[in-house]
Amino acid sequence: MTEEPRLLAILGHRGRDAKTCLYRCGNACDHPAPNESANPYLGDVINTALTRRGVVRAGAVGALVLGFGATATATASAPAAAEPAAGSTAQAVLREPAADRAGALTFKPIPPNELDSLIVPNGYDSAVVIRWGDPILPGVPGLDVRHQTAQRQSAQFGYNNDFLGVLPLGRDGRRALLVANHEYTNEELMFPGFTSQEALTVEQVKVAMAAHGMSVVELERVGGTGQWRPVGGRLRPYNRRITMLETPFRFTGPAAGSAWLRTAADPKGTTPIGTLNNCSGGVTPWGTVLSGEENFNQYFVGGDAAPAELKPRLARYGISTTVRVPAGSRRWERAQERFDLALHPNEAHRFGWIVEVDPYEPGSRPRKHTAMGRFKHEGANVIVARNGRVVAYMGDDERFDYLYKFVSDREFRPGDSAAARRHNLTLLESGTLYVAKVTGDSPAAEIDGSGKLPSDGAFDGTGRWIKLVSGERSYVPGMSAVEVLTFTRLAGDAVGATKMDRPEDVQPSLLTGKVYAAMTNNTNRGVGTFAAADEANPRNANKHGHIFELVEDRGDNTAESFTWSLPIVCGDPADPSTYFAGYDKSAVSPISCPDNVAFDSAGNLWISTDGNQLDSNDGLFATAIEGSERGHLKQFLTVPPGAETCGPFVTGDDRSVFVAVQHPGEITGATLDDPASTWPDGDFAKPAVVVTWRLDGGPIGS
Ligand code: FEO
Ligand code: CA
Ligand code: CA
Known about the structure:
Elements: H1 18-25, E1 64-66, E2 76-77, E3 89-90, E4 92-94, E5 124-131, H2 150-153, E6 161-169, E7 175-182, H3 202-211, E8 213-221, E9 228-230, E10 240-243, E11 250-252, E12 278-283, E13 289-293, H4 311-315, E14 354-357, E15 367-369, E16 381-384, E17 389-395, E18 399-401, E19 403-411, H5 418-424, E20 431-440, E21 460-470, E22 473-474, H6 481-486, H7 488-494, E23 500-501, E24 503-508, E25 515-519, E26 546-552, E27 561-569, E28 579-580, E29 594-599, E30 605-609, E31 619-623, E32 634-638, E33 644-650, E34 657-662, E35 688-694
The chain binds MU-OXO-diiron and calcium ion (CA) (2 copies).
Protein name: Secreted PhoX family phosphatase
InterPro entries: PhoX, TAT_signal
Pfam family, one: PhoX
């Protein structure tokens, strides 16, 4: 329901909580950054002079977006599995900018707050779509935390929803498929009487494994509004759970079946079980969902007893090679032996991939694409380049890790024939993987780590995409193609990729082809022996993060060179180290720790946050990114305490914005029995998906 924002400080804990650090990334901040390579930093890189350019108009197939209802003009159809296929489509729509609305974000921003509620601007409403434990498969009861079982959880909506995709179902704009990631679990907020991971029963460990993975849920529009809800009442043929417990995947690409991926349970190295720590993702123009396997390291024990030659490869991914049970371990080896690397050292290599799920084919086996490399994948977002090849942009979310892109060998085939879709489903199985090397155009002496703009008035410069591997050919000396793909971080080290401040979501605008990456933060930047600020990561002890804008040379998303700038350097606008594209700072909202990005049909940039360091709950923001309103950032929404704001997803008709409220109440000391948040139902905290819409039915934001 809509609430007037009330500025009440209801809880003492603020920002990224210690509990979040433990569960989300295995206390990564307490450990050395795994990148110990001696790569040159930005200032060392040759500055190739490139011309800065303005708006790039995407070519004929360069602007694809999923649309709804009447906006759909071109479709890539997928046959429905168990229900008549009439009009069931993934709509790849050539999108023209809504010129009349471009940049017109007229909502009144909400103020920062710490309310245990979901807050939206006046004139908007919000509702929970689905929450942890809601049944999505038949024959399972709703959530009962005192009698939860792995079998029940495998048929219920999972925990800690992160990425959201909302794909049209049918052509009338009334039904859709929600696809959600379930990144990790908070056992202390799930089980009554929780004391420690070690004290969990094996069945409870299996519940946690079943609560990881992904969900597909059929939705229906509520009346003619922007509200959506699950379709209930009978078997929904598209509804699906993908779990860590038992769902088989298939490896594709050059590393499939390689020796690095073979285990006792899978001697062919082709069929991993489950997907792990799925963070963000993307929706492809052919109507599938990509999902990034991120902090998989925290689920393994026994790295101390792994073969000596493997230890550097494990350590580069944050897996302890000195301690049998690292602090914060999930202890999943008690339920499934494969998580003990002393026994199954290759099991860890079967995670850290981009997975692709076809929600229109509920019986299809999801795939892990080795051609897209292996790192702590935040997600992947695809655009069709002018030459028809598809380009996926990806971030490796770790302090001092890298930006990547993948270019397919084959070209996207438009149209809604079954043959076209079959073809497009293969696009991510072969191609070329690049890593970014970035340089600034200002003298290094002008980048003093304070955030002060250099004398040319901008943090900006040029960059190159360094080819790592193309098909079965490696471009990295001393590494085979399979090694480059399986140990991609080491390949990035070897070629001198640029160390960034935690690259999270990386997404191209389908209107302009420009690419936007959220650099969440890096409090180690410039601290002690850690690398100092550079023009692309210009603040030491960077606690608030920034947005990186990348413009491919010639407007060609397959280009091997680009220009870049930082349109937003986050924080309190009163802080002189912040920058909002030169916009009047008195008119912008404070923002901290950008994580996920999205676009509406007018091309406005939506940014969600994780770990706000400005004494407010996390939230969702929007700004125009072209024209005179560029940098006019306004806060649209806040989530309850302890939660991060995920998703977000703006539907193609601009009438609904979905967000995933992940880990509400995740605050040190809080438990299920003594919760720090009771959102959304008033009893205890539950991760949930929320939809917001405009009460008068108009487009969101404008
Ligand atoms: Fe799962 Fe990079 O946040
Ligand atoms: Ca500059
Ligand atoms: Ca994230």
